[in-house]
Amino acid sequence: AVTTLALVWPQAGEPPRATAPEPTAPTVAQDNPTAAAASAAVAPAPVPTPTPAESPTPTTPTPTPTVTRTATATAQPNPERQLVDLVNAERTKAGCTPLRIDARLHSSAQKHADDMATRGFFDHVNPDGVRAEARITAVGYRWSQWGENLDRGPTTPAAVFARWMDGGIHQSNMLDCGFKDIGVGFATSSAGTPYWTQDLGAPMS
After folding, report:
1. Helix 79-93 and helix 157-164: axis angle, to 10°?
2. Which of 74, 123, 126, 170 has the fewest Cβ atoms nearer than 10 Å?
3. Among residues 64, 18, 19, which one has the least CA distance to residue 169?
4. Residue among 175, 173, 182 at smallest CA distance from 4
């Protein structure tokens, strides 16, 4: 079964469909005896026998509670950001400017990924006959050029990216310096199959 698809406009002919494998102690107060005698007394007052000082009752110190600190893992970027970062790293090597995540292209890509996962198809054209360019236009993106990569099966952005770096049209789309914007959609079907859509575009001048 075909697991990756790519499409781009403008392009002559139908694009090839490539198949790729998965992938403190207490202080005791001391008594101070009073030893003053009355000045008017004829005879000195008897000296009282001192009472032996009582030993303080030993106390058991309360242990200080041990606080266990769990290291908080650094939050990972969302799948779209991860995938775009991978693409932009390769674009930099190729001398292209980084792609910007565009909310409209994200919406287009996400809707298509959701649709494929819900209705169980895998194509650039949905069962109603709506093509990629119509979906991109419908979200308000005025394009002069567009491209789309699809995949199903891989669960991580890195795996999807590796499959799209196939030397074919998927890779050509991602490394096309003419593209300026990108949006990525990711959805999982009820059966647990992941679907990916990557829409690329160049805005109309």
Report:
1. 40
2. 74
3. 18
4. 173
Spans of the chain, pLDDT less than 70: 1-2, 11-74
Report the C-alpha gap between 148 and 172 in whole angstroms: 11
pLDDT digits (tens, 9 = 90+) for 126-180: 999 999 999 999 999 999 999 999 999 999 999 999 999 999 999 999 999 999 9
Question: Residue written as tokens 């990756």?
Answer: 4
Residue 8: the pLDDT is 76
Say how far apart CA 122 and CA 17 lie, in whole Å.
Answer: 12
CB-based contact 146:134 (threshold 8 Å): no
